[in-house]
Request: fold
Amino acid sequence: MTTSLSLNMADLKEDSVFEEINEKLSEGVPAEEIFKELQVGMEIIGERYQSQEYYLSELIMAADIFKKAANSLQSKFQPTEKEMATIVLGTVAGDIHDIGKDIVSLVFSTNGFKVIDLGVDVPISKFVDAVREHNPEFVGLSCLLTTAFDNMKKTIDELSAQGLRNNIKVLIGGGPVDQTTCNYVKADAVCEDAPQGVEIAKKMLGVK
Reply:
């Protein structure tokens, strides 16, 4: 449901966003509900970006507001009794964009997932080492450059070559990523945005 907080987030009204967050917290509204309203705002921003109403500069501003807002709520979340799964996350080698990845990291962590964030321009070997060390259920690969598709494919191929692919599901995302990309790199699913990624991951886990 779209609320005034969602719309203020979508309109990039930073001061209004934080005023509303503080008001809602003082009224006893759970942090989880506030976060969901922010997510709806981010979904609207994604739609505006797709329709070219917003451009990269607005996307960067939106990510900054969202990250600040989410961080301000982090300590107010009800602790999850047990993390439902682990995801190793990173922007693949050859790509230094962190906007989408950072939002995915926040959204997954606030939905009960343990997130191992490897950062940007992540070498294939670092993904392999992280999978060996953390034994995750998921690997999330992000990119905003079509030129990084090959490195996305090589990362997945190397996980297979190392015998690590059978135990994990690979989720991919980013502006230019679609089902054709998913088929090319041999990932398990493509995620249009962070909330959809959580939904897909939970479905794969059999969690409602």
